[in-house]
Design brief:
Two copies of one chain form a homodimer.
Chain A lengths: L25 H17 L6 H12 L6 H10 L6 H13 L3 E4 L4 E4 L10 E5 L5 E4 L2 H13 L3 E12 L1 H8 L1
Parallel strand pairs in A: 3-5
Antiparallel strand pairs in A: 1-2, 3-4
Helix pairs in contact in A: 1-2, 2-4, 3-4
The structure holds zinc ion (4 copies).
The structure holds a DNA duplex (30 and 30 nucleotides).
DNA sequence: TTCGTTATGTTATAATATAACATTATTTTA
DNA sequence: TAAAATAATGTTATATTATAACATAACGAA
């Protein structure tokens, strides 16, 4: 996940150097939470304690996390929680574009650019699990055009690329 | 799913007219099975009765099917079957590129062009479930380039576009 | 035929997600 | 403010998807 602020939200995410984002700093998490708070406020939605807590957990995770991992963390935090607890919170966050869900491994990660709705491409490392959200408008536009040729109107694009990340490739080549 | 033979395996699948493929004809199924037989033979792999039967079921389905649906059908056919029965057969077929798995809805569909390995784009109708495999080399190439900018080596691309198919859009607009 | 390998059968269980209904919290309206 | 309506959460049960582990059977090579 790449965090806003440190770079423009264009093609090149700050994530191109992997080290910089393995462990999001507490400031970055705070920033995302602040953005979410503002965004929910604007939309007249309740950013409840539970929803905030789940978003925080997702943000703090250095990698996409599973729902049941979040459930464990909620319980460890002392809160009474069951699967619907976390799934409902995740559903809310997904609807608001604050998190993304990766279909290929059933995990959730914080959106790097929750400001505007967008389709994203995810680079998922099969070795270390590190996952990077990249915004390549060109790709999505091209997909939309191609789908249009088949008279198909895209509602949601799931583009998940699995492979070796830079670091793992280097380690692997040695 | 679009069937080979009726058109070249390029951008435009025969699938662009949806009606032509809702119910694959028995000839088309036979053709796919024959291709699979040949392909396994070439690779010195055993295209066992179970594997053939599962591929047939996937081919005959007019839409991508779930593993447990296949399991039911296997049982209805009189065969003793449990989840591993179908998952193992599906794993084999996936490895050989004879079927694809859709991560967004946990379903399986026969590959339209099992001859050569490929990355494909899937157009999944959220209304009727109809799913079309399209081969737009351009998209995959572009994805590969974009990923390359992040020093990322793609092993597998999952590109699944959910939306309204031509027919459903027409019905919807009225 | 014998042996090693591969595939399948079988039972149990893991992992992911939702249904249904009760309770609590919040907002709206009177 | 009080009552009613709405939204969120708690709670229990269950559905859905997938795999682990070990036994048996089929197959292929020697
Ligand atoms: Zn995003
Ligand atoms: Zn990696
Ligand atoms: Zn294919
Ligand atoms: Zn449709």
């Amino acid at each position: 996940m790449c965090y806003p602020g440190s770079a423009t939200m264009t093609e090149q995410c700050p994530h191109s150097d992997m080290t910089s984002c393995t462990l999001p700093s507490s400031e970055q998490v705070t920033r995302l939470i602040d953005q979410a708070t503002e965004l929910c406020d604007k939309r007249n939605l309740r950013f409840t304690r539970l929803r905030k807590q789940v978003l925080e957990l997702v943000c703090k995770a250095e990698q996409p996390v599973g729902a049941y991992h979040l459930l464990d963390e909620l319980r460890e935090s002392g809160r009474s929680a069951a699967p619907p607890t976390v799934y409902r919170a995740l559903d809310f966050l997904l609807e608001q574009g604050l998190v993304h869900r990766l279909a290929t491994n059933n995990t959730y990660l914080a959106c790097a650019h929750p400001q505007q709705p967008h389709a994203a491409v995810f680079l998922v490392c099969s070795q270390c699990g590190h996952t990077q959200e990249v915004h390549t408008g060109g790709v999505i536009d091209q997909l939309r055009r191609q789908a249009g040729q088949f008279d198909f109107a895209i509602e949601h694009a799931s583009v998940e690329l699995t492979g070796l990340c830079s670091r793992c490739r280097q380690l692997h080549e040695q």
